[in-house]
Amino acid sequence: MNKIRFALGLSMLLSFMVLVTACGGNQQKGDAEKEIGNETVTITHALGEVVVPKNPQRVVVLDFSALENLDYLGIKPVAVPKTSMPSHLSMYKEDASIADVGTVMEINLEKINEVNPDLIIIGHRLVDFYDQLAAIAPVIYPTVMNVSDFMQAFDKNLDDLALLFDKQTEVEKAKTAIRLKVEEVKKLSADSDQKALILLHNRGRFSAYGSGSRFGIVHDVLGVKEAAVGLDTHRHGNPVSSEFIQKTNPDIIFIVDRSQVVDKEITNKEEIENSLIKQTNASKNGKIYYLSPEMWYLAGGGVASVSVMIDEVAQAF
Q1: Is residue 283 a contact partner of residue 277, using CB atoms and an 8 Å limit?
Q2: Do 189 and 223 touch, CB atoms closer than 8 A?
Q3: Any idea what the Cα angle at residue 240 is, between residues 228 and 246, rounded to 5°?
Q4: Buried b (16+ CB within 10 A) or exposed e, 241-252
Q5: Contact predicate 206/242, CB 8 Å
Q6: How many CA atoms lie within 13 A of 160 on its CB side?
Q7: Which residues pair with 45 in a beta bridge?
C-alpha cells in the first residue's frame, strides 16, 4: 500500500513539474515572439506603403547602395546578388553563408523564396519584379534616382533603416558626416566659374547627364555649374557625339566608364580623349576626371558610395 501511495505521489509531482515547465516555456516563447516578431514598422517608399517586422532577421538585399547602408549599420543579409559585386562589398560575395540570388537586374525568385526572408530591399533595376517579390515577403524600394531632392531621399533611406533596426545614433552620425562634406564642396564650387559635363562612356559611345539625372548630385547637391543646360533626365542619359562635347567646351569633364564594370574592359583613355575632346578647355587644363564606376554606376546612393562621389567631385576644385 505504501509503495502504491509513493508511486501515486511521485506521478502527481512529475505531472505538476511538467505543467510548470510547459507554462514557463510558453511564457518564454511568448516573450521572444513579442520581442522579435509582433512589433511592426510601416515604411512608405517610391512604390507604395508596406508593413515590415521590427528588427527583421532574414533580409534579402538586391541593391548595392542598400547593401552599403546595411553594411555600415552592421546588418548581415541572408542573400545578395553576387554577380558584378563592387570590390568594396566583396566580403559579401565571398561569404558562403550568404546565398547568391543572381544579379541586380535579373534575380532568382526560387532561391529568394528558399531563404525565407522577412524583408526584401530592391533597387531601381528590379522595379518590374516588385509584385513577384512582394508575394514572398515585404518589399521596400529605397532610391535616390530621379528624385527632386537627392539629399532628402538619401536621408529618408537611412531613417527608414534606423527605424527598422533601432540604429538612430549610427544613422545620425552618417548623415552629419555626409552633410559636412557636401557643404565643403559647395563652398568650393560656388567660388568657381568652371562648368562641368558628366559623361557615361560605354563601348566607345558617350551619354551626357545633367541636373536631375542619376548623376545629378554633381549639380543639384554639390552646386557645380552645368556646361550643357537642359539635358534630358532619362536614366540612360543623352546620347552625344564627340562634336557635341567639343562644341559644349566644358571646363571640367567627369567620366564614368561603364565598360570597365560591365564588360570588365580596361579604360582606354586614348579612345575616350580623342582629337575633338582634346580641344576642350577641360582637356587643355588637365581637368578630365575618371570617376569610380563601381561607386557611380553600380551603387551611387549608399553611405560609402556617396562619400566617395563627393570626394571625387571635390578634386576638380
Answers
A1: yes
A2: yes
A3: 65
A4: ebeebbebbbbb
A5: yes
A6: 26
A7: 48
Q: 148-176: buried (b, 16+ CB within 10 Å) or exposed (e) per residue?
A: eebbebbbbbbbbbbbbbebeebbeebbe
Does residue 29 register a pLDDT over 80? no
Question: Are the C-beta atoms of residues 219 and 230 closer than 8 Å to each other?
Answer: no
pTM here is: 0.85
In the chain, the amino acid numbered 117 is P
Cell numbers representing residue 116 in the block: 525565407
Say which residues have a Cβ less than 8 Å from residue 35's Cβ, sequence separation at least 6: none
Task: Please choose, from the candidates 277, 312, 273, 280, the residue with its C-alpha nearest in 3D space to the C-alpha of residue 294.
Answer: 312
pLDDT value at position 37?
52
Contact residues for 266 (Cβ-Cβ < 8 A; gap 6+): 260
Is-contact 317 192, C-beta < 8 A?
yes
- State how far the Cα of 106 lies from the Cα of 64, in Å rounded to an integer: 14
Specify the 3-state DSSP secondary structure of 24: helix
SS3 99: strand
pLDDT digits over 89-112, tens only? 999 999 999 999 999 889 999 999
Residue 145's pLDDT band (boundaries 50, 70, 90)?
confident
Identify the structural domains of the chain with CATH numbers, from first to last.
Answer: 40-143 (3.40.50.1980), 187-314 (3.40.50.1980)
Is residue 294 within 8 A of residue 261, CB to CB? The reply is yes
Please tell me the distance from the alpha carbon of residue 205 to that of residue 201, in angstroms, as a whole number: 6
3-state secondary structure of 202: strand
Joined grid coordinates for residue 35: 520581442
For residue 42, give the amino acid letter.
Answer: T
**Averaged pLDDT, 229-239:** 89
What's the one-letter identity of residue 143? T
Q: How confident is the model at residue 12 (pLDDT cuts 50, 70, 90)?
A: very low
Taking only the tens place, the pLDDT of each residue in 58-69 is 999 999 999 999
